[in-house]
Write a structure and sequence with these properties.
The protein has two helices and nine strands. With about 240 residues, the chain is an alpha+beta fold. The strands form two sheets. Strands 3, 4, 5, 7, 8 and 9 form a six-stranded antiparallel beta sheet that branches. A hairpin with a 7-residue loop joins strand 3 and strand 4. The mean pLDDT is about 85.
Length: about 240
Amino acid sequence: MIDQGGAKATAIDQQQASGARDSSAPSKRWSIAATVLNLFFTACLVWLMFLQWRAMQEQAKHMKDGLAKTGDAVKAAQESADAATVSANTAKRALETLERADVLIEKVIVSSGSVIGDDTEITVVLKNYGRTRATNVNCSCSLSVGMQCSPVIGPYVVPMTIGAGATYDGVRFEPLGYSLDADTINGINGGHLELQLTVGIAYDNVFDSTKIHRTNCDGSFQPDTGTFRMRQTVVA
């Protein structure tokens, strides 16, 4: 006899095993698909992160270049400003030199002409040859005859202002007879002794009141012309 019950049981088991295999196949496919998709999205994310990193690198490079250009522009602007300052200072000094006051001796007047005497008065005339006024003008002067006598100190001059192109004739010595004896005066007239005049001038200008300009002058009396031959030196 054939055991039909056992055959049926075997057939049922085979069907169940086949059904189990058929039902597990889609699960595996979904699992594989999910893994593939996960890898794909991960790769996409890595690619996006790479692109973002590269963009940030490019941006950083542009910012660095921009900062370098900005630094160059700032440096160029500073150099331009320094050059403008130097140019302005040079122009200012040139203007001051051209326009400032310039006080010198215009002439020395000998009241008695070519022959001096006891009553002869000597007057120093100052003139401002500059284009602006001279302020706080001081003048010191003296007469001397070698070692024959002590220097004759000129009059005290109150500090004054001399306008552009103006003159001042208030620097006047007292008559020579008050300081020189007859022999000395005769020696000067005869050309045996030399009457020397020394003048120092100091003044301010309108551009800078702290800067003092000075002019030193010296010369000697010429009996043949009755005048003083003067040498003038601007020292500041």
